[in-house]
Structure formats: C-alpha cells, structure tokens
Amino acid sequence: xxxxxxxxxxxxxxxxxxxxxxxxxxxxxxxxxxxxxxxxxxxxxxxxxxxxxxxxxxxxxxxxxxxxxxxxxxxxxxxxxxxxxxxxxxxxxxxxxxxxxxxxxxxxxxxxxxxxxxxxxxxxxxxxxxxxxxxxxxxxxxxxxxxxxxxxxxxxxxxxxxxxxxxxxxxxxxxxxxxxxxxxxxxxxxxxxxxxxxxxxxxxxxxxxxxxxxxxxxxxxxxxxxxxxxxxxxxxxxxxxxxxxxxxxxxxxxxxxxxxxxx
Length: 263
Prior knowledge:
The chain is of the alpha/beta class. It has 2 domains: 9-112, no CATH class; 126-250, Rossmann fold. Helices cover 40% and strands 20% of the residues. The chain has 11 helices and 11 strands. The protein has helices at 9-23, 40-44, 53-56, 85-90, 96-112, 126-139, 154-164, 191-201, 210-213, 217-227, 239-245, and strands spanning 32-38, 60-66, 69-75, 81-84, 147-150, 169-173, 182-183, 186-190, 204-208, 230-234, 249-250. A 7-stranded mixed sheet has the order 7-8-6-5-9-10-11, sandwiched between helices. It has a 4-stranded antiparallel sheet with strand order 3-2-1-4. It starts with 8 loop residues before the first helix and ends in a 13-residue tail after the last strand.
C-alpha cells in the first residue's frame, strides 16, 4: 500500500486534470463524458490470435469522449457513464469501475487538447506488431539479464520469450484462469504473492497500465523504485497518467485519440 500520508498517483492526476479543466474552461461548461464498454471487435478489431483477455471476455475496454478526444481504459468492471467532466472529477476512486472511467476520461481530455497521443488501442494485426516492437525495445534498453512482465499480455509474453528465452522471462497475473498456466515454457505466477519475487529477480519490468485501474500500480512502482529496478509501463490505459507523472511508457502501435478539427 501507499506510504502513510502520500497522495496516490491517481489523486495526483485528479489534481492535474482539475487544473487543465479550469485553464481550458472545461469544468464549468456542460462537457459531456460518455464512457461505455466496447465489444472486443470495436476495441481491437479481429486479431489473428484469440487469447487476449478482452477477446475471451475477462476484461473490457471502456471509451470516454470529451469534445473531439477519445480515451480508453481496460477494466474488469465496465459500466456506462454519462455526465460532465466535473462529475468525473468528483468520482470516488475507490473501485475499479470508477477508476476506469476517470482514467479513460483523463486520456480523452489530454487527447482532445493535443497533449497526449496513443490513447486508443491498436487493432487487428497491430497487437502482434506492437509485441515484437516492445520486445525489440527491451532488448536494446540495454538488454536485461532477466525481464519481468506484470500483467499477462499473450503476444508480449511470447515476443519476449522469443527474444530472451524462457529462462530469462518471468510473468505474474491476477487472473486465477492464468495463474499456473505455461506460456512458451514460462509458468504464470500469482500476482498477489509472486510479484515481489519477480521484481527482485528482474532487471527490467514491464507493467500493464491496467494496474492503475485495479489499484495495484502504486505498490508495484514503489517497490521497483526502492530496489533500483527499471520499470516500463505498457498499454493505452496508462497514456495520460504516464505523461502527467513523467513515468516511462511504451505503446508503439496505439491509435490517435483526437479527431481532426474542422476549421
């Protein structure tokens, strides 16, 4: 958990978002935020592989729209929301569904203002390309002795194993359906009990942005920092948070979340 008295990273982002809303006149206007769960096809198209969590129904992507901006977030507690940006800023960040709405809305605002790109998930065959590019970037980072992956993404896991070998990759996940299964020769560990051991062993750790939604990001990042380990956040969920808090993020194939303005 967070150190006593320390504001959570999402609360820090709430403060930043409130400032931006005031500076750009968004909070006082009737700015509509519409967040709804997307179907797998709407979110990522039709990738060749069918084992992504969103495809098999364990997670959903919600999309928020603020003026011309679109922002997405992964969650296991998807629900519809219709309100103003002020309503979003007032949401208690005490459950996955609320955190997902807040994060998707943050991404949409930053996309609308042209502050952040890559707030919409890649589609069709792009997730496989993304995984290969992430593995190549990790190899050149400089190449770590052992890589950790917190939050199973099947394509990224297999790309890392293809580059580094099964003996140099560790994986943890919170889903009971994944824990204990083997991916390319690597057994998926329990994220509740095995993440500290993964961080201790790895030189570089990829962390899914979904940890921001399920409220596990802060302790993970604090442990990485305390141990002096390199961390890299992946995925569209983390786009706005990583920008505002200057955290390293990789998401090479994410789509633009801002529609062109008509002059």
